[in-house]
Write a structure and sequence with these properties.
The chain is α/β, with parallel strands linked by helices and 673 residues long. It has 14 helices and 28 strands. An 8-stranded parallel beta barrel has the order 10-11-14-15-16-17-18-19. Strands 20, 21, 22, 24, 25, 26 and 28 form a 7-stranded antiparallel sheet that branches. Bound molecules: calcium ion.
Length: 673
Amino acid sequence: MRTICIFSILFVLVLLWTACRGAKSGLSAPLTYDQYPVYTGKDLGMNWSPSAAVFKLWSPPAEAVQMHLYERGSGGSPLQTLPLKKGKQGVWSISLKGDMQGKYYTVQVRIGGQWLAETPDPYAKAVGVNGRRGMILDLSSTNPAGWAADKRPPQAAFTDIILYELHVRDLSSHLSSGIRHSGKYLGLTEMGTTNAGDQSTGVDHLKELGVTHLHLLPVFDYRHTSVDESLPAQTPQYNWGYDPENYNVPEGSYATDAADGAVRIREFKQAIQALHNNGIRVIMDVVYNHTGSTTESVFNRVVPGYYYRQNADGKYSDASACGNETASERAMMRKYMIESLRYWVQEYHIDGFRVDLMGIHDIETMNLISADLHAIDPTIFIYGEGWTAGGSPLPDSLRALKANTHRLDRIAAFSDDFRDALKGSVFKHEERGFVSGRPDEEESIKFGIVASTMHPQVDYRKVNYSKAPWAKEPFQTITYVDCHDNHTLWDRLAISCQDANEAERIRMHKLAGAMVLISQGVPFLHAGVELLRSKQGVENSFQSPDSINRIDWNRKTQYVSVHNYFSRLIRLRKAHPAFRMPSAELIRTHLKFLDVSDKNLVAYQLSNHANGDRWKNIVVIFNGNKETKTIQLPRGKWSVVMEGDEIDEQGIRVVMRPFVELGGISAMILKED
Ligand code: CA
């Protein structure tokens, strides 16, 4: 009996020793990221009230968390260092009594006995200069006068949208803009500005042109290594900003004072308000697919590794080609994206998002984002790049790639099929496209005209990239020919058509503009395309100086006929619902391609008051050949409404014969009432 007892005690002791040893030497398996507890509350980050500021941080692996309070956003020693208390679901919290408005803070997490570097938390809503410290702020104090009455301009259907893609600095950094707040958010609030030829610039120009949405290149806080917010405004610095630092805070270098965390918030809201007052909605370019730094990111400094995908060898995968890719499929990254986007909509009244390298994100997350945002407002527009910049460990079938767009809920993707068919591949600078006389692009052009949807007359086998329709509905296709990436259209035509004179290249440029603005889908214009914008041949101007990137408003005087052509095209599109049908079924019913045997020539008819158009029938013809072409017209009484530079809805001339002649490198539209 006694022997059994001694053996039992020994056995228990051995068990205990093994368990202790295992814990000390790490033999008990650590939690995998997917086993981390998930926080279900919606109050992460700093939440101010007059009586207390309550802060919560999610960090399951932390052994301890502390907060440092500071007087300013940079410099000085901490006023206080306070410990956070561990709660449920991996959340640490602290309540700072009293009105803490205006104080700055960092958090610091201890893991494996080591304190990691100080950082703002991922949910920081306000920060000091260069985003190094969070700021405690009553957000309502940043609202401009009349903010409560700010409303989104009306929008009926997604296919009514006309996007205009702009970098904040580019609008106002050329003297010719006449804008006082050069390179700033406030430049977007100045009205009545003109160039030397007395033509409108800035927001007045956008109104005159008629675009409905201003798509801003990154305006969230990006890395100080790209643009140092602490340097004087006249220091030459420029970056597109695709290197996120603080996702929920506006970039400081576009504010008149980057040191006071409230100023950038107020001024960005003022810009949004001014655009809304002028009938223009605002789209934010968002880059949740990676962080600017891997080791110094706000994610890795609070929960190392968790927010990123890893390869089988445990190293960071890099589908962004920027050193890392985030893991949208992981519960707390997914939650972060949803809450961050919702925050921009609710706090800043943002009207939509362009998702950078959307193909890195998983489909399920994108659809949850869509459901969440569209529950707030069904008119919010979401679109993205349906590709990546490198391989990802997440299978293609799960990612929001262009080919999977039909599985995305109310989300659109850019059509590189149409873009490259129009001007040639962005990877082959000398290659020509439809507008510059390259034959055999007709099927890709037809695919673009029907906005990548299923149409019985498109032979998908002959389409340049996609061999099947990828958009379920036309609004899921962003129709474009150039954007901030790669050469501007005007530079591209100069490089690929060195034998063409300027007049010919202008015709090509205008033909591309017409094909973007008359086709189905959602048209997208790169800012300044209507002024033959040039970046002096620089293909990737992400950190080129203002002298390369800025819009030269003198070109509006120099190339006024091009500007007028684009603004008339936009007016025509807006006046005629036939050019912006909201469903693929309507396109299949009302859009019929005409039988033309010539290369580099595409023609189609929009019949029977398509989408309620007041014109009974419309014929559209695009001719990429240098030569004049003759087109057989369907039976009817046709008048030309668009020809050469002229657009006149009343009719320029009546066509007396069953055919029409169309000049080289041009677009033509005819109507039958
Ligand atoms: Ca910054």
